[in-house]
Amino acid sequence: MTVLSAGAPRPLSLPAVLMTAQAAWLAALLIPLMTHTPDWTLPLDTVSLLALGNAALGIGVTAAVTRTIWDARMLLYISLTMFNVGALIAHVFDPAAPIVIRYFTDVQLAHAGYYLTVCLAAWTLATVLTAILIPRTDATATPTQLQRLRTVGMLFLLAGTVPALLELMEAVQIVRSGGYMALYQQDVVVGVGNWRAVLAVFFIPGLLFLLGSGTLTARGRRGVLLTILLYVGVRIALGHRSGALMPLIATWFLWHRLVRPIPARLTVTVGLLIFMVLLPAVAILRNTAGIVDLSPDAVITTVTGLQSPLLSTLFETGANIMPTAYTMDYIPGARTFGYGLSYLTSLWTALPSIGGLNPGLAGDGPYAVWLVRAVDPGVASLGGGYGFSPMAEAYANFGLVGGVIGFLAVGLLVQGLLTRFSRPTNALHVVLMAVTLSFLLLWARGESVSYVRPIVWFVLLPALYVMYRRRDRLT
Fold it and tell me: First-to-last CA distance in the chain?
């Protein structure tokens, strides 16, 4: 046993070492942004290597904090990396392939890629800081809390089951008659008229709350699992890859934590099949015809004809670098910096839209809508878009250096929530994180206006209800 002498400095803990190292790494990356000149950008190949190295470092640091891949913080970091710098990482292994479909100069892509890499380094620092600042509780869910989880699940299912079924049936008809893109060419309905779509989103969270409550029999758990898998299958048939994959990941996460541990080998195998076969195949099939009516021969031909599927998936998901590149080109100029306005107005979306368009969507509208209208009005008129990025939103509000700092602040808020509910043996924590994973993974290609409502409705309000303790009345 080692005894420290009086006055001897205490050895640094692992989180403290990680925080110091990550802060130094972020500071080094920030220097070019703080002292930039017109020719400050590194070559595209160098930025791609930097993105790959930073991704590996971020995964390593996050793994040291979470000690498992089955943690919402790890999965969200992987999603942010794939969608924003995935194409740059793929470029390292296939430099001859184009990074994005639309034309950008190497300087524009390098500029955007470097900024995104610095933002991801800031996100990793937020992971370490929240792990240090927010203590983890050892408490487990009480029987009362488990019963309340069941109550929340039943209420959500009561609200969302029929609307979700109606939405899926209508989507199948649209795809069969007009193909995948027809889903995005429907008239936009707001207010009370959009009640079905609003209530349908309660369906998957309701199933997850019910499954994680621990109040179901084995047959009941299998029934919930089968229902989710059927939902995922229909989503895949419609061409909705993210709409299928996120509920699947959330269910896998919850099942592994609360029902029965899933072998790592099976997880890796299924993950590789999804990313190397399913996702690229669906991307091709949904653009050739409605997947609902495809013959087995067409599916087999497409799957067997895939070339470099993993790199193809990285190039496709990583094409989300485009919104950031466009935003850095158009702002300031076509639009002034928001100085935090988009974050403030997004808070309005926590309130239901009854009389018309939600105030959080009024004015210039979400950045994603504004961007496609500014860049390609023709695509916008067809209901298309380029998506967006939380890093691009930070830049649109605060600029280069301010955007990194703003994204660090957003990371502290989001990961503070994830860290607070990260106890793997607490059923309440696991359910809340599973529900979060069912929608937040796609935030990597979105913006705050689309995710305030689900965080409030499906995580914060249920957490307050389940954790509420009524004080005993005085006698």
Answer: 54
- If one counts every other C-beta atom within 10 angstroms of the C-beta of residue 77, the result is 25
Show the tokens assigned to 78: 């992987």
Tens digit of each residue's pLDDT (9 = 90 or more) over 218-231? 999 999 999 999 99
- Specify burial of residue 464 (Cβ count, 10 A radius: 0-12, 13-18, 19+): exposed
Q: Counting beta carbons within 10 angstroms of the beta carbon of residue 409, is it exposed (0 to 12), middle (13 to 18) or buried (19 or more)?
A: middle
State which residues form the domain around 171.
143-315
Q: Could you tell me which residues come within 8 angstroms of residue 375 by beta carbon, excluding any fewer than 6 positions away?
A: 326, 330, 386
Residue 307 lies in a domain: yes
CA-CA distances (angstroms) from residue 53 to 47, 85, 299, 444? 10, 11, 36, 19
Residue among 57, 74, 56 nearest 65 (CA): 74
For residue 410, give every residue at least 6 positions away whose Cβ sits within 8 Å of its Cβ, in sequence order, or none.
343, 390, 394, 448
What separation in angstroms does the CA of 443 have from each of 143, 216, 412?
33, 31, 15
Q: Is residue 266 part of a domain?
A: yes
Query: What's the whole-model pTM score?
Result: 0.89
d(CA 407, CA 393): 9
> CA 339, 343, 346: angle at the middle one, nearest 5?
140
Measured between alpha carbons, how far is 174 from 239 in angstroms, rounded to an integer? Answer: 12
Tally helices (H) and strands (E) across the chain. 21, 0
Q: Is residue 214 part of a domain?
A: yes
Q: Alpha-carbon distance 414 to 168, whole Å?
A: 31
> What stretches in the chain show pLDDT beneath 70?
1-12, 36-40, 101-102, 179-193, 285-307, 353-365, 383, 470-475
Please state, in angstroms and rounded to a whole number, the distance separating the CA atoms of residues 30 and 20: 15
Pair of tokens at residue 359: 């105030």
Residue 440 belongs to some domain of the structure: no
pLDDT score recorded for residue 434: 95
Task: Tell me how many domains the chain contains.
Answer: 1
